[in-house]
Write a structure and sequence with these properties.
The protein is α+β, with helices and mostly antiparallel strands. The protein has 14 helices and 12 strands.
Amino acid sequence: MKLRCFALSLTCLLVSAASAADPQLLKLLMPDARVVSGIDVNRIKGTPFGQFFLAQLPAGDASFNQFVDLTGFDPRRDIHEVLMASPGDPAKKAGLLVARGNFDSARVLALVKAQGQAVENYQGVSIIAGGHGPGQALAFLDNSVAVAGDAASVRGAIDRRVGAGGIDPALAAKINRSSGDHDAWVISLAPVSAFAQAIPDRNVKGALQGDLLKSIEESSGGVRFGNVIEITGLITAKTAQDASSLGDVMRFFVNMAQLNAPAGQPAQFVALLKNLTVNTEANAVKVSVSIPEIELETLIRQNSARRGTRTPRI
């Protein structure tokens, strides 16, 4: 069993959080976290789109089934909640994924050791080296919590499980509000321009470093699943004038997308753009769109048909 397979499986269901984020998981995140997202997989499994999404997973894939047999871990049933965090500084190359679920840690560790992979004992916790690439690591704090990321972030999470620490209280308050209102959410206290250095495309990098995008100080977004899927976003700019300019630019691009939809583009896609609203209030830009769940399913099915892929019935 390769650890990369396990890491990929941990993230394959990152699609949902509707009760406030688990405080025990939040405690594990690094104190300098500035970008945090959360997912409550249990919540979305019970929604129509959750059932549709699960139907897309390759249940008949032989290698996936072999992985489940070897580890006893099936991400379709065994992941309950996921948090991801980063300092929001590409130069640090740090990030942490925390998952609550059902893990047979002894079984996984035995397989890892049998294949000769390095295992480090740190504060009484076994850390599997290698993870998703060089410098990456995976650890089970117990049979219900797993952490993965760069080795330093994983060790930090282990330290914080019994000690003090955790994220900034102001950020924690934002997380509690967003996770309580949405099924999937992300909060970034890092300016958009901070990510420019991590973008290989020169044009995109230049756009991120433009004066208008440099005015964005914070951003957040969330999704609430149901018969109607509600997507909202909030951008906080330096000034009210910056927010007004950002709102105007966003409305311009939405209008252009509607007028210049490629030939053959599904009518539903253009209709969804018409449901998108952009409003400004003081130095904030609020974006929202409501998508009937059945229409989103239809879009996905049509896209799969154009690519020549099979979409299972549910």
